[in-house]
Amino acid sequence: MLDGMEAGDRISGEDLLGRLAPGGPWTRIVCLAVADSTNDRAMEMAAGGAPHGTVVVAEAQTSGRGRQGRTWVSPPGRNIYVSLLLRPAIPVPEAPRLSLVAGVALAEAVEGAGVPCFLKWPNDLYVAGRKAAGILAEMASDAGRVRHVVVGVGINVNMPANEIPARLRGRATSLAIHAKRVLPRVEVLARFLDAFAARYRDFLAGGFPAVRPGWERRDFLRGKPILLRKDGAERWGTADGLDEAGALRFLPDGGTAAESVHSGEILEFRR
Known about the structure:
By secondary structure, the chain is of the alpha+beta class. It is 24% helix and 31% strand. It contains 6 helices and 12 strands. Strands 1-2-3-7-6-5-4 form a 7-stranded mixed β-sheet, with helices on both faces. The radius of gyration is 18 Å and the shape is globular. The relative contact order is 0.15.
């Protein structure tokens, strides 16, 4: 049934820790009943000296947000709202690629729960052509050094169709809608943390090229006409996968060569 929650579905730190594979980077699990934003809480903890590998989970968010300042609908007990505090010894330009690493890990976790999915550059997970999860990475740095990166993930797990806001219907979905069953959220979260631990090790050892094949297998946009907004200008063109730096390869209409787009927004796409 998707119109109710399973009893006892609340995520606890003890239960989550008991499901994680050994050897991961996770040092502390913080479970909150309500947060304005798990990313905000994790950034505050980072500034206060919280260790690498801190995981912040909330049952509900009052001010969840995604890229471009958009809000993330965050009702209690239905979905997963989690932020990972990382202190990687990497150059500042490498840090934004951690959102792509998180995307590959998230796709592995969702597929492990029995739901086929795709990745939409730069930070969305799609199920059956609709958005089911988003990623927001934020960084603090000084003197060319990364102090910390917070990777926030919001996953629509058990939200039934009638709870999706009207403005998002037709564009958003949840895992349970396609699995046709309520999924244990703690199990999905444990799968994600285990997958992220593995892909994070790959990234530290080999950069984005080490995880790029996992993205390419699930690339939602490749070969599709897209409307790209970059530096205030909008252009139609074709998505041609990601380069080894994680940038979108964009072939503008009428152009002869693909451009590498490191930051931008996909406003529309055609199937």
